[in-house]
Amino acid sequence: MKPLRRDAPLSEVLERAQAADPRAVARLVSLVEDDSPHLPEIAAALAPHTGRAQILGLTGSPGVGKSTSTSMLVKAFREQGKRVGVLAVDPSSPFSGGALLGDRVRMQDHATDSGVFIRSMASRGHLGGLSWATPQAVRVLDAAGCDLVLVETVGVGQAEVDVASLADTTVVLLAPGMGDGIQAAKAGILEIADIFVVNKADRDGADQVVRDLNGMLRLGGRHSEAGAWRPEIVSTVASTGKGIPDVLEAIEKHRTWMAGGELARRRQRRAAAEIEAIAVKTLRARMGDLHGSKALDTLAAEVVAGEQDPYAAADKLIAGIGASSP
Amino acid sequence: MKPLRRDAPLSEVLERAQAADPRAVARLVSLVEDDSPHLPEIAAALAPHTGRAQILGLTGSPGVGKSTSTSMLVKAFREQGKRVGVLAVDPSSPFSGGALLGDRVRMQDHATDSGVFIRSMASRGHLGGLSWATPQAVRVLDAAGCDLVLVETVGVGQAEVDVASLADTTVVLLAPGMGDGIQAAKAGILEIADIFVVNKADRDGADQVVRDLNGMLRLGGRHSEAGAWRPEIVSTVASTGKGIPDVLEAIEKHRTWMAGGELARRRQRRAAAEIEAIAVKTLRARMGDLHGSKALDTLAAEVVAGEQDPYAAADKLIAGIGASSP
Fold first, then answer.
1. For residue A227, what are the CA distances in angstroms to A222, A262, A267, B319?
2. At what angle are helices A133-143 and A262-292 packed, to 10 degrees?
3. Which of A164, A254, A292, B103 could bond A192 through an S-S bridge, CB–CB 3.0 to 4.6 Å?
């Protein structure tokens, strides 16, 4: 295949992406990141080719060994002959618009493997982090024929929740001595984890982390209901590869359980959230257009002066959107 | 004044809140947190009484001494005879809906002072953290006659940005030995800080943090423009009160500078963002109503099946909103 030209038409980029040309895939992901006006056209072209990939979320605090674990998982999936896409999302950088590459260097093991596509994405500011760009990037990798899309994100608050809402299976990484007592105590972690991986299991305190997790799981929550999935707990030493086959086994076990109906439910919920996020974004853009037309400025000045309250102003703004819609 | 009855009508709660009855203020903040259907009515009643409070944002990583610093600042403002409201926002708990009180116990110094209102707020999940509830809670405290509203939040990603967009003056706390080299290197901190406070200044490494900050400020950004505010850097030992008067002086200096036009611009921007957030929330709620009517479910199922792409589905959803609006 000839290299993709910089000025190649979108139709060619789409066609090549579906044939897994990595440069075409990269270009589509960039268009998603840059919120290209062509996104509707791209989404329409990709839609018939999506829904095949298994989507794995991987999250954890800085320092638990996410990149190493991701790299080892990619290696293991490659050994099974699977094509793998990795989206590394860094929500810590709301301003730069560019993800910090940092320890991604480890991922260079896979840089020359045409069966692996790796991409760092910055999560953008106010539109809610992962909420709209990442699902669209996942669609690109799915349509490009990845059997598996791994979304890796730093576990901080909202990003954890977002990655879980995006994934078929969410893996939460912990490590001893990382203040994980506090980490794990957060109710959130129990809500999102399908699989817990206690990495750096050769270090002191790893057993205690496993015990704490088991204790939390015994306390119940959603996992105590009949037929519910009880999160697996797996110990690893990612740097040596120890325990990685157990992680794969847990993922496979969860996939089998999901096939009993939960996968369809999750994907339905995910699609609904995705549609809603795009709708909100579109409506915001329309409000932005109104902003340009000074309606919002005038309303804001009245709110500052105390002549109007923000709820009444919002009602007027929404009425304006209705009027300006095509 | 007689104690506020549990079943007191909203009109009485509003009247008492404006007379600074702490129970009435607390009830209004709860109504805001719970997204009460009465919010438009509350906002309308408060609007004429807002715009007087000075709004201070205070943010920093866990462990830099935020609570102690907040407590000392409250004490200093009280000595100036100012009425102070504190909103402590914890964005680390997306699920619980209840803020972790933890080290807020230090704030109990002020628990019996009727000139101080303290409230912990959990930032909620998917609607974007601080973005809509906190400004409404600030309005309540403003209308209740607080001269100063201090919004304290853990500095993690989006929350930092949100608190800065909310405040007249944003104070970023750092401390030596907290990995602040990495913290400070984040471009975000330069964008939001009006004042840097290097707390625990009696510890090794504090001078280095100050030097690093000065170095970053010399590198420019928005601060190098003519007439721009150059962030003040103040060293404190909050546990002993050392340096707290310098923080107050820096805040006052920034306030004077802001009065030259920037305050009006910030408040205008803030009101616009607030209106927009409420408008988006309203539109989301309308989409939720549609969800109930199965329109979104049907669209989502079509997206899952690859029969429709999410952009086309979002367009249809928006058309539905127009039709369902009053």
1. 10, 11, 19, 39
2. 130
3. A164
Pairing of strands A195-198, A169-174: parallel
What is the rounded average pLDDT of the residues A225-237?
89
N residues, chain A: 326
- Per the structure, the complete domain to which residue B302 belongs is given by 272-324
Instruction: Quote the mean pLDDT of chain A.
Output: 80
Q: Are A309 and B49 a contacting pair at CB < 8 A?
A: no
Give the range among B104-113, B143-152, B244-253 with minimum mean pLDDT.
Answer: B104-113
- Chain A hits for B126, Cβ within 8 Å: 128, 131, 158, 161
**Same-domain check for residues A119 and A209:** yes
More confident residue, A36 or A246: A246
Give the pLDDT confidence score for residue A325 in this predicted structure.
Answer: 43
Residue A307 distance to chain B (closest CA, Å): 6
Closest chain A CA to residue B319: A325
Residue A95: list chain B partners with CB under 8 A.
161, 187-188, 191
**Structure confidence by residue, pLDDT tens digits, A234-248:** 999 999 999 999 999
> Per the domain annotation, does A33 fall within a domain?
no
Per CB-CB distance under 8 Å, the chain B contacts of A158 are 91, 94, 125-126, 129, 157-158
Say whether B309 and A44 touch across the interface (CB within 8 A).
yes
Do B129 and B66 reside in the same domain of the chain?
yes
Q: How far apart are CA B58 and CA B37, in angstroms?
A: 30
From the list A129, A161, A284, the residue facing B280 with the nearest CB is A284
Residue of A161, A271, A301 with shortest CB distance to B268: A301
- Rounded to a whole number, what is the distance in Å from the CA of B289 to chain A's nearest CA? 12
One domain, residues B315 and B237: no
* Chain A residues touching residue B315 (CB < 8 angstroms): 40, 282
> Does residue B276 contact residue B282 with C-beta atoms inside 8 Å?
no
**CA atoms within 13 A of residue A59's CA, in its CB half-sphere:** 30
Instruction: Compute the Cα dihedral for A162, A166, A170, A174 and give only its sign.
Output: negative
Token pair in block for residue B308: 């429709």
In a domain, A231, yes or no: yes
Q: Cβ separation of B39 and A311 shorter than 8 Å?
A: yes
B290 and B252 belong to one structural domain: no
Q: B157, A267: Cβ pair inside 8 Å?
A: no
Residue B317's pLDDT band (boundaries 50, 70, 90)? Answer: confident
Q: pLDDT at position B94, please?
A: 36
Position A14 in a domain: no
Report the residue from A125, A279, A321 with minimal CB separation from B161: A125
Nearest to A35 by CA among A132, A120, A130: A132
Are B158 and B250 contained in the same domain? Answer: yes
Same domain? For B277 and B250 the reply is no
Residue A195 lies in a domain: yes
Residues 6+ apart with CB under 8 A from A271: B299, B300, B301, B303, B304, B310, B313
- With both helix axes pointing from N to C terminus, report the angle between A262-292 and A244-258 in degrees, rounded to the nearest 10: 90
Domain tally, chain B = 2
pLDDT tens figures, A260-314: 999 999 999 888 888 888 887 888 777 766 656 578 888 999 999 888 899 999 8
Calpha distance A299→A291 (Å, rounded): 10
**Which residue among A91, A161, A300 places its CB closest to the CB of B125?**
A161
User: Looking at the structure, do residues B104 and B227 belong to the same domain, yes or no?
Assistant: yes
pTM comes to: 0.67
A136 and A60 share a domain? yes
